[in-house]
Amino acid sequence: MHTTEILQHFAEITEHYIQELNDFTMEQLRRQPSESEWSLGQMYVHLINSALYMQLRNADDCLTGNEAAVISTEGKTEAGATVFNQGSLPPIRIQVPASPQYTPGQPESKEQLVHGLQAVLRRMNEVGPMLEQEALQHTVAHPRFGMLNAKEWFRLVEMHYRHHLRQKDRLKNELASSVSE
Length: 181
What we know:
about 180 residues; mainly alpha; Four Helix Bundle (Hemerythrin (Met), subunit A); three-stranded antiparallel β-sheet; 6 helices; 3 strands; about 5% strand
């Protein structure tokens, strides 16, 4: 997929996430289905933080060739190759044990979420054009997918947002069923 297509899809998904926020109160956004599951608001915070502080930061590291990025012959893992060949993350639920490093905090407001989503979109629009001019030999390791270059980290943001649409719909349905009970 070309960078402009990724940006277009990402803008559409971001707008969808923003519009969906209108359907929820802050109480609903903070309600966790169970102790071990994230709330809808935590899922939004996760999307924003992982895009800004992992995926796009790693894309920047690859573009600048700083010490975090390396020229590697290792390549992607089998899982990474599969994800990028398919153009999407697998449609499975991934649960990790709660931890201060990984569990996102509850959102403070809808405005915080909207501003965060818009900040990610702005960064995507800043990084996207740089990808067309850069040699993509620098990589940064992803914990599951192996060595990814700047374009792959960039593409992962859109795939990650798309992947969480299923979780958003599941949580939305759970909220709707809890209201009707």
